[in-house]
Design goal:
Layout lengths: L3 H24 L8 H13 L4 E4 L3 E7 L2 E11 L26 H16 L6 E9 L7 H7 L10 E12 L3 E3 L2 E4 L1 E10 L3 E2 L9 H19 L6 E9 L6 E2 L2 E10 L2 H21 L3 E7 L5 E3 L1 H15 L4 E3 L10 H7 L2 E9 L20 H18 L3
Parallel strand pairs: 3-4, 3-5, 5-16, 6-15
Antiparallel strand pairs: 1-2, 2-4, 6-16, 7-14, 8-12, 8-13, 9-11, 10-12
Length: 396
């Protein structure tokens, strides 16, 4: 495309501003639903650029860049919230808030999207349609993306496609990684309460031991993964909490279990939830106990649209070169609430690498998570190119 050089130049020109915004956000991390300072910084930049905006989900912002030509609408997303972690990185712009830290790169996602705003705002003559900039709160908790969708971000004008990215500590600095199909899992949770009959530990025959039943449930649940689930569809059932009794010579009345079911496919997700509940009810009935089972669905799996991902893959190769863009082989059973966006419209979510030789691998959600913010030149350019190319290739 003949505007690629313009994007390159603007990404380089605005890199110092992006880094300044990133470092301000890093110094002032805000947890989910508390992103008021972050929101204010976003509004200040959009206002300086004369980009109209609206507030959604209380602390979220959506800006809209209207091109000089009519056309479709693309959404670009950056999440904004930090984590309840005490930073241990010795940098000049380390967190100034005790117990809070940008340990997942969302400061970079936000600053990079501000860079996209700067780039595209200067290129309205090349835009055939509209670009919505989704500055999203609360990715780390209850899914701010869903709230913004419920409050109308996909409408007026209707969004036709969406793109988003994540900084990847496993990937070489500047490299881009595309994943077709499922990319992140559904992080559902469950709680189980087993009601038995307690008694003296010396007379177990007079009791209905809920701990013994709990062990049977834990063991039986693993057979769902190895003998009943489709082996070509990855999933994990992890029991992460078990509580029962206090006395060492007393079998308790009740035992509580909790954990997570991680899946990549909607059919596997429902199958495992139903089957785990069936195991709980059956084993408790066989042992004369009763049970309650609560399944708590969370984010859906993030599944990239094949056609949109093929488009993104090719356009990113066109811009960055074939050696810089690779295809991710395996999905992750971690979670990402861009999944709600991907359910609403054809979407592609991808990784941009931040690992540098001679440095420790940046581990997300770790107090020593750190990265070189020169990468914002790549993140901003990649999103800008995808928006421009999509709208150009889908002219009305």
């Amino acid at each position: 495309m003949n505007y690629y050089e313009t994007v390159r130049n603007l990404a380089v020109t605005h890199l110092p501003e992006m880094k300044r915004h990133r470092r301000y956000l890093h110094e002032n991390p805000e947890l989910a639903h508390e992103e008021f300072l972050t929101q204010q910084r976003v509004i200040e930049v959009l206002t300086e650029l004369n980009i109209p905006y609206t507030i959604l989900a209380e602390t979220g912002v959506v800006g809209i860049i209207q091109g000089s030509h009519p056309g479709k609408t693309v959404l670009l997303r950056g999440d904004m919230d930090a984590l309840p972690i005490q930073e241990e990185v010795d940098i000049p712009f380390r967190s100034q808030i005790d117990g809070k830290m940008h340990a997942c790169g969302h400061d970079g996602h936000t600053a990079g999207l501000l860079g996209v705003a700067m780039i595209l705002n200067a290129m309205k003559d090349e835009i055939h349609g509209n670009v919505k900039l989704m500055f999203q709160p609360a990715e780390e908790t209850d899914g701010g993306a869903q709230t913004m969708i419920e409050e109308g971000i996909m409408d007026n004008p209707k969004v036709d496609a969406a793109f988003g990215l994540h900084l990847g500590g496993h990937l070489e600095h500047g490299k881009i990684e595309i994943k077709y199909g499922p990319m992140f899992g559904a992080p559902d949770e469950f709680e189980i309460r087993i009601q038995g009959r307690g008694g003296h530990a010396a007379s177990p025959e007079q009791t209905i031991d809920p701990i013994m039943i709990a062990t049977q449930i834990i063991q039986s649940a693993q057979t769902l993964l190895t003998r009943q689930k489709d082996p070509m569809k990855p999933a994990v059932i992890s029991f992460t909490s078990i509580h029962a009794g206090e006395g060492l010579n007393v079998i308790p009345d009740t035992c509580y279990l909790g954990g997570t079911i991680r899946t990549l496919y909607p059919d596997t997700r429902q199958f495992l939830a139903d089957k785990l509940q069936e195991i709980v009810n059956t084993l408790c009935e066989l042992n004369g106990a009763s049970a309650s089972f609560e399944f708590m669905p969370s984010y859906p799996p993030l599944i990239n649209d094949d056609a949109t991902t093929r488009f993104a893959h090719q356009q990113l190769i066109n811009y960055f070169g074939e050696n810089q863009v690779s295809e991710k082989e395996f999905a992750s059973l971690g979670a990402e609430d861009f999944a709600y966006v991907a359910l609403a419209v054809p979407s592609c979510y991808y990784n941009v690498g931040i690992f540098e030789d001679g440095h420790d691998e940046p581990v997300h959600h770790h107090p020593k998570f750190a990265w070189n913010d020169d990468i914002l030149e790549t993140t901003s350019a990649s999103l800008a190119i995808l928006a421009l190319d999509y709208l150009s290739l889908h002219k009305i």
